[in-house]
Amino acid sequence: MKHLRSIDELGVAGLHRLLDLSDHMAEINRRPVPKVPALRGKTVVSLFFEDSTRTRLSFETAAKRLSADTMTFSVSTSSVNKGESLRDTIETVAAMGVDAFVVRHKSSGVPWQISRWTDAAVVNAGDGWHEHPTQALLDCYTVRTALNRPEGFDGLHIAIVGDIKHSRVARSNVWAFAALGARVTLVAPHTLLPPSLEGWPVDVAHSIDDVVDRVDVLYMLRMQRERMHEALVPSLREYTSRFGLTPARADRLQAHTLVMHPGPMNRGVEMAVDPAELPGSVITQQVTNGVSVRMAVLFDLLGSGSGLAGEAS
Amino acid sequence: MSGQEPNSDHVVTPPVGGVFRIKAEVLGADDIRRAVTRIAHEILERNKGLDNVVLIGLQRGGVWLAKLLAETISRVEPGTNVPVGAVDVSMYRDDIGLRPVSPGAVTDIPVDLDGRVVVLVDDVLFTGRTVRAALDALNEYGRPRMVQLAVLIDRGHRELPIRPDFVGKNLPSSSDEDVRVTPDGVVIGHREPTGEVAS
């Protein structure tokens, strides 16, 4: 594997390989000294053109636990403010000797563009509404460990609830969950679904009440408040009453059902219950697993030598 | 992709592509059992019992061997129960990035290693680089009082100053040969690449 830009380019075999590798990384993270020398001498640069807390810190933690050197680039303090182009920025940083770029950008496709300008590996940490593959990987890993499904998700029913249209998390997760064998149901008002779902391996429900008592995983997306200006939902209260996880709905969840959320959470909007009081909530595990999964990605890209062997996927 | 299909009884598909052509069987299942029994006695003798001894198999080939060794020890010395663990060294190798790495199963160290006598167990001792990586990996779990090394086959060609304490069989080999170990026996042979895979 040379880059990780989308779940699609990873393939099913690659998905399983990274999830298996994440088990190793999780073991490292459970040790008293969670650090291995695997990527000594490698340099990983985080290029964040968009705000992020958990993803950026998660990648940095992952790189450091593998003994890679890390550099962080935040657009607000960079020469981008002096008008430097994306290409010049990349080529300048690459000239310092970089083995991997971790990129977040508001425009879809930027990771592909960057990989044409540098020999370094490129990891997509979120591009516009398009993809967020490491989020999908950590979500798959969370489901896999919490429901003990190392072989795959055959027979699992997963509902993804909320703003599908603007969500890169939803896009990556749909493909990853489906590739592992799960049945995926999208739950959203028409205005928050993409114009066409042709080719998506999903079915659609328009009320959370249709799925809440039968799914194995309830995946709540963040209701992006900035969407309110576009009048895609009548009001946040209306949204909560039809698509939010309320205490009444939480009572209808099956005992084994997992509740997941990619963060940051809007308490009182999509999450109208305290997740700490939900027995099925694995939201904290998602964050913990994020470090293990990103270690697996960085190791696979920089350390496994799989690129040398001619990747079979 | 895996290599081509086996086309006779003496050809198996190795994990890294190509085919493995068997030249000779070196040990049979009974020979392995006898060698393991002898090593079990030697471990007991050297350590004057089993106080603080823990067996750690190297993923993957050493793990079944460590378990077999532990079972044998508890037969030889009834009433004893030696802890068995497993260590995966792929994150500690010195050839990371030089060749494909496919980690074995996950490391599992069942006890605190501080002050213990660790017996590392592997199937084949070759360059010694895996053992070096294992010594580094063990450091993360504590400071053993002593580390000993038990191997079923020592085939020579060491590249580091590493010497086994317990050996099942010394097997002179040439460096382009390959040694395969399973519970059913030990064979020596050659790996032949399948054209597309460069060695």
Structure explained in plain terms:
- The complex is a heterodimer of chains A (313) and B (199).
- With 313 residues, chain A is of the alpha/beta class.
- Chain A folds into 2 domains: 7-131 and 287-302, Rossmann fold (3-Layer(aba) Sandwich), CATH 3.40.50.1370; 133-282, Rossmann fold.
- Chain A has 9 helices and 9 strands.
- Chain A has helices at residues 7-29, 54-65, 86-94, 110-117, 133-146, 168-179, 236-243, 247-252, 283-302, and strands at 43-48, 69-74, 100-105, 121-127, 157-161, 183-187, 202-205, 217-220, 258-260.
- In chain A, the strands form 2 sheets. In chain A, strands 7-6-5-8-9 form a 5-stranded parallel sheet, covered by helices on one side.
- The longest helix of chain A has 23 residues, at 7-29.
- Chain B is globular.
- Chain B contains 3 helices and 9 strands, in the order ββαβαββαββββ.
- The relative contact order of chain B is 0.21.
- Chain B has a single domain, classed as 3-Layer(aba) Sandwich (Rossmann fold), CATH 3.40.50.
- Chain B is 23% helix and 30% strand.
- Chain B is α/β, with parallel strands linked by helices.
- Chain B has helices at 29-46, 61-76, 129-139; strands spanning 11-12, 19-28, 53-58, 84-87, 117-125, 146-154, 166-170, 177-182, 185-192.
- The chains are: A alpha/beta (313), B alpha/beta (199).
- At the A-B interface, α1 of A face loops of B.
In short:
Chain B: InterPro entries: PRTase-like, PRTase_dom, PyrR, PyrR_bifunctional. The complex is a heterodimer of chains A (about 325) and B (about 200). Chain A has about 325 residues and is of the alpha/beta class.
What order do the helices and strands come in, and which of them pair?
The complex is a heterodimer of chains A (313) and B (199).
Chain A: H1 7-29, E1 43-48, H2 54-65, E2 69-74, H3 86-94, E3 100-105, H4 110-117, E4 121-127, H5 133-146, E5 157-161, H6 168-179, E6 183-187, E7 202-205, E8 217-220, H7 236-243, H8 247-252, E9 258-260, H9 283-302
Helix pairs in contact in A: 1-5, 1-6, 1-9, 2-9, 5-6, 5-9
Chain B: E1 11-12, E2 19-28, H1 29-46, E3 53-58, H2 61-76, E4 84-87, E5 117-125, H3 129-139, E6 146-154, E7 166-170, E8 177-182, E9 185-192
InterPro entries (chain B): PRTase-like, PRTase_dom, PyrR, PyrR_bifunctional
Family (chain B): Belongs to the purine/pyrimidine phosphoribosyltransferase family. PyrR subfamily.
Keywords (chain B): Transcription, Transcription regulation
